[in-house]
Amino acid sequence: MFKRTKVTDGTATGQGPDAENWDGKEVGFRKKSKVPGVMITQYIEKLPEGKSHPDFTRKPIALTIQEGKFAFFKAIVTGDPKPTVVWSRNNGDVSDPARYQSKYDPNSNEHTFEMPHVKPDQADTYKCFAKNEYGQAMVTVVLNVIEVGFKMTKAPQQQAEVANCNFKKVLKRRSKVVPKAEEPEKKEGEIDPKFWELLMSADKKDYERICAEFGVTDFRWMLKKLNEMKREREEEQAEFVKNLSDLKPIHINADGTASFELEFDLLDPSSSIYLYKDGEMIPYTKELGDKMKHCLRKVGRKYIFSMRDLMPEDAGFYQLDVEDVNMFSTDFKMVDFLVKIQEVKAMEREDAVFECVISAPLSKLMWFGKNMPLEQGDKYDIEVSEDKLIHRLVVKDCMVVDKGIYAACAGIKSCNAWLVVEADKGAPKGKKTARKTTRAGGSGTDLQKVAQEQQQILDKEREERKEKIKAAREAAAEAAAAEEPEKTADSGAGKDKGAAVKVERIDKTSVAATTTVAGDSGSGHSAGKASGGAKQDGSHADAGGGHSAGKASGGARKDGSIADAGGGHSAGKASGGAKQDGSHADAGGGHSAGKASGGAKQDGSPADAGGGHSAGKASGGAKQDGSHADAGGGHSAGKASGGAKQDGSHADAGGGHSAGKASGGAKQDGSHADAGGGHSAGKASGGAKQDGSHADAGGGHSAGKASGGAKQDGSHADAGGGHSAGKASGGAKQDGSHADAGGGHSAGKASGGAKQDGSHADAGGGHSAEEASGGSRQDGSLADAGGGHSAGKASGGAKQDGSLADAGGHSAEEASGGARQDEPLADAGGEPGITSGLSDIHAIRGQPAELTVKMNTDCDGAWFKDGEPLKSGGGISITKDANIHKLTIHSCRDTDSGLLRFVSGDLSTEGRITVGDVPEFDEDDLHKFSKPVIVRVGQNAAFKMPFQPQESLTVSWFKDGTELKDGGGVKIVREPNHSRLLLRDCLRSDSGEIKIQLKNPFGAVEATSQLIVLDRPGPPEGPVETVETTSSVIEIKWNPPKDDGGSAVTNYIIERQERGHSLWTKLGDVSAEKTSFRDRNVTHGKKYSYRIYAENPQGLSDSLETADSIMAGIMILSGPPGKPKVVSTSKTCINLTWTPPEDDKGVPIIGYQVEKRKKDTNQWLALNAINEPIEDVNYAVKDVTEGAEYEFRVSAINESGAGDASPPSAMACAKNPNMRPCFKDPEDFLVVRAGNSVRVKISYEAEPPPHITWLKDDEPIAPWINVINTEGMSQLVIPSSKRSDSAIYTIKAKNSVGEAFFDVEVRVTDEPKCPGPVELEQTVYGKVAVSWVPSPDQELDDRLYYVVSQHDSNTRMWKTVADRLFANTYTAHNILPGIEYHFRVYAKNDMGLSDPSQSPTWGANSNRVPISSNGVSSMEISFERPPSILVPLKVHTPPKGYQLYMTCAVRGCPTPNVSWYLNNTCINSDKNYYITNSCGVCSMYILRVRENDGGEYRVVAVNSLGKAECSTKLTVRD
């Protein structure tokens, strides 16, 4: 009794095949496929021999494809008969041939479902059905279609899918990174804002990679700016979170999702958290559900962002913000496989290699083997090339269990391939073979070449980015010298006491300053240059401000007009023009470390300086009359100072911002002096004067210093603001004129020039370690030097007539005063500067060391060590060659270590020298280490090298030039005084050079050893060549093995095998110098195979075997045998016979080869190999298909091979011969207990299959009687029999040949009831007649009879005296007087004995006079009683599918009728339960417990006197 499962395929309308071919309602059994995801339904319980239900050996793979491309699914199915394959989809039909095409390739057995020019509406779940008459198989596959022109702005449309979440307001927010659709046009060479966002969230080890990706090469500038941005960002983050840590960039997980994570604590739990992709906010859910793609989960302090269903468009720039502050940024990139891994076929105990090349560097791929992630270890080696483009997986020591599918995953891209491991057939049984030294697999292509080409592409892209940035900077310098000024109308000077400046802060990541100066020129942006034009009519020319290393200067004029210079931004410079007539020159504001200064005048007209922004400087011009000089406001660490006056007028200084200080100058004539604000903790103080005029000092910025110069004649001296530890000082004068010094920025220097006539010299601000100096003059004119920016130099030209030469140095370029039209000469003058300074060096003890400083001019300098001056002598030489200063240490000692400093005037440079030794090895240790280490294959190799403990010592191990890393079979131990290398389980390929390297800052030292791994030699090199073959000699030749196993080959061993035999015989051996062998013991016409072994001290190699057998002499083939004859056929076998060939060519025939050809085909197939000949002239062909027709031919085989084939036989069909039905060993009588099932099984033979009919007493059987017909057998089943089912059942089998009948008598009965009362009567002496009333079952059972037992008082034993009595009387003999006799009568049938009927006592006391009981009446004893439960049912909890026995004991008289109930339903007639009742022991048996067998079981026993019952519960476990 087996459990059956009915399965109904519920395919909806439009999904499945046509109804006429596919009803979708088959009932069958679920089967498990070897391919995951395939559902199989088998229609019948037992498949016929040789038949199978459909199954998939290759199922379709899910596909994501772009709209308009060619999409297809492929599947390979198996099954006998051949299945029919149909495709469908869940939502729609596939009947349109223009959109859906099903194809089949009989060569590859592939079913293809194609969709040309796929559309978005075809994205769906597709089903593939394979069906034959025995079952069906079904698999589903998903198609995703990417729409062309898909925009991420569609993401807000997902808000309707999120229950109880309103993202409407949230989606209006924007990240700091602007979406691509809203990005402003990026200027050439501009750095992407993503660069800074990535750096602030990245580890330091990734800085170099990110800089290379974005083309940034100035690391010092990058680090400086990054630290500033980090400080600002951390201050913003501290307002919302604390303890921000463990930032992990986005990566792909093993389950196919992508995630990044970070840890922090929210100060306010109600703070909002936002997610951005490429600047666009994306919705997310708290859990990864079915509707939402993105999820943000919190686990403790950790926040995990994950993303499922990855697509190519998911690549982008992701950010996580708390409120409006960015916490983390990461870039999600997609890589592709340029070379995918290929299928590998490896022998057992051989290493297998999978290789691939990816399109972008990746430090690690995810490797999977048989759906399990793989890690570096003893079994697997994961290798990555230096450029991180080539990735390898090495499966070491392959075994058969390692075969399967292996995959490499890089993000959403993956590739997979099979590893096929073949068993080593030559290995001895029960013994483990030695591990092989060879490797199988690889891509089969030049991976290094592909990787180099890809690396060249990546390098080219990187260089192009660098060139763009470099070109942008060069363009800024060229534009400053090439562009013409833009003419604008001057809006008037002096509004609101100077320039009104407005600065707007755009956002935290980029600050763009917008400056509006009343009466001055506009701003010049982005490395451009604007200069005022020359005029002759008194009009004015405005020059726009130069931004980003640009320059703006006022034009030269010959009349009284004015020249204005706009503000220079971002390290730019703006200076006022020179005039000869009393007009004025205005200088616009210098922004971002730029400088703006007022021009020099001789007639009392004013000079205005615009506002300097971002560490820039703006100062008022010098005047000698009563006019005024205005200085614009300096912003962001800029400076503004009031101009100098002598007559009581005023000088105004624009407002200074950012905690600066501004003070007015001292005056004695009633006028006033205003001082602009000093910025950023700077200082500004008024100068000292003796004549009533005043001295103004500009604001000192960032710990800089600015002081007024000393004067003796009443004029004033102004000192510009010193920025960032820079210095600015006023020049010395002797005639009452003044000297102005511009602000020195970032350790730069600016000084006023020397004058002898009363004119003044202004020096522009020196920025970033550069120098700006005023020129030298002889006539009282003015020389201004523009600000030197970014390590550049700017110097004013020399003049002889009072004209002006301005030079602005920008971006590491140099600008010098040019020649003018009114004077023939304009020389570039400048102050000393250091062009090449000192740096830290490491010197080797006892070796010389040299330090060099290069100046731009020939000037003196001094050397200091740790603050003490140095002089030549004591092993030190100090030399000077023009502008080159050298310090030479002839032999370095430990005392020479220290800080060296070179000073020339106010300039200095310093560097540290450290004296030490290169690491060394001990000579004895080096000698020991150099000795080769020799081990055998499978053993461990160990190397140890002692050394002296040192600081900053790096120890590295190398094998054949490749550095070894700890892990897998390599173990590296580093101790303070030695290092050890252990190589486990060495292979032959591990042989090579082993090197240890010790490295410190002073140098490196290496020691080399050799590792020799000994092994058996490799097999001799083939192929085996036949040098000579005759009837008596065969000579063969081979080549030595490629690998001798580390020791020389000593000899070769040759073995031979005769064709047709399995035994190999050793012929002998030859020395290693000889690689040929002559076999003289051969027989003409016979074929031989040879194999050769190479031997060395480690053992024998694998064999080299001849590819084909070699015949001794000439080949002689036999003639054709006679035409085969078909003796007999059946559906499984065809018997053939033939006659030997008439002409055997004189060579004995050793056997035959039989071939077959199926009808309608052209291919002959051999049924036996030539080396397995058929020795007899008859053969039974069993490799046939029922119903197919075949013809056969035979070839005779001798020592030379198979001869000519015989003529083909007649066509023979593989089917049984027609025969009349006949029954095989049937049983003609069957007895069954009433209530049990009846099964009558009849086996038969017939061809063709007969029609089966069953009859009951020559009448048709009742409908509740089941008939089950299978091939060769018919069964009649009566589920729950009754006595009325007793009859003669006839089976009738009929086919086209004839018919047959057979009768089976079935008797349904039960244990008989006991006979009636027994009477005794004596007819004659010594004989007693025993009679009884017949049993009630006598009329129902004609096979019932009686048994009589007798008991006497002498023997006191019961014995059977009569058996098989069909009458109701019996005569007992030898009845003796004086002895008591008792008789019992039983009824008996095929089921057994009934209870006995007891006779009265016969014998000695039978004639006694009865004794009176004195009125006490005796009661008659009765054994009748109602049913009772002696042993109740027990509780059972069997597992599903196990068998179960359930029993109880019942007593009662008369015998009660017992019924079983399950959940109040009688199960006595249920065929799934086998129920018995033997002598009151009631049992129930379940062959295999099902889930629906659980419940309450109840046993009810009933007789005429009452009822008894008991119950229990059955629980089925999984």
Short summary:
The chain is mostly beta strands and 1518 residues long. It is built from five helices and 108 strands.
Which spans have pLDDT < 50 for at least 5 consecutive residues?
Answer: 1-26, 150-175, 486-829, 1407-1411
Label the overall shape.
elongated
Largest sheet: 6 strands, mixed
Distance between the termini: 19 Å
> Quaternary status of these chains?
single chain
Radius of gyration in whole Å, from Cα? 55 Å
Query: How much helical structure, as a percent, in the residues?
Result: under 10%
Provide the structure class.
mainly beta
Strand content: 35-45%
**Total DSSP helices:** 5
Strand tally = 108
Overall pLDDT level: 73
Please name the defining characteristics of this protein:
1518 residues; mainly beta; six-stranded mixed beta sheet; six-stranded parallel beta sheet; 5% helix; elongated; disordered N terminus
List the helices and strands and how they pair.
Blueprint (H helix, E strand, L loop, with lengths): L28 E4 L6 E4 L9 E7 L4 E4 L4 E10 L3 E6 L11 E5 L4 E6 L8 E9 L2 E12 L46 H9 L5 H8 L4 H19 L3 E12 L5 E9 L6 E5 L2 E2 L12 E6 L2 E6 L8 E7 L2 E8 L4 E3 L4 E4 L3 E8 L7 E4 L2 E2 L6 E5 L5 E6 L8 E7 L2 E10 L16 E3 L5 H36 L46 E3 L9 E3 L7 E3 L9 E3 L7 E3 L9 E3 L7 E3 L19 E3 L10 E2 L7 E3 L10 E2 L51 E3 L19 E3 L10 E2 L7 E3 L9 E3 L7 E3 L9 E6 L4 E3 L10 E4 L4 E3 L17 E3 L4 E4 L4 E7 L6 E4 L2 E2 L6 E6 L2 E6 L8 E7 L2 E10 L6 H8 L2 E4 L4 E6 L7 E6 L2 E2 L6 E5 L3 E6 L8 E9 L2 E12 L6 E9 L4 E6 L11 E8 L6 E7 L4 E4 L7 E10 L2 E2 L3 E2 L4 E2 ...
Parallel strand pairs: 4-10, 20-27, 21-28, 29-31, 30-32, 31-33, 32-34, 33-35, 35-36, 36-38, 37-39, 40-41, 41-43, 42-44, 43-45, 44-46, 45-47, 46-48, 47-49, 51-58, 59-66, 85-92
Antiparallel strand pairs: 1-2, 2-10, 3-5, 5-8, 6-9, 7-8, 9-10, 11-12, 12-16, 13-14, 13-17, 15-16, 17-18, 19-21, 21-25, 22-23, 22-26, 24-25, 26-27, 50-52, 52-56, 53-54, 53-57, 55-56, 57-58, 60-64, 61-62, 61-65, 63-64, 65-66, 67-68, 68-71, 69-70, 69-72, 72-73, 72-74, 72-75, 76-77, 77-80, 78-79, ...
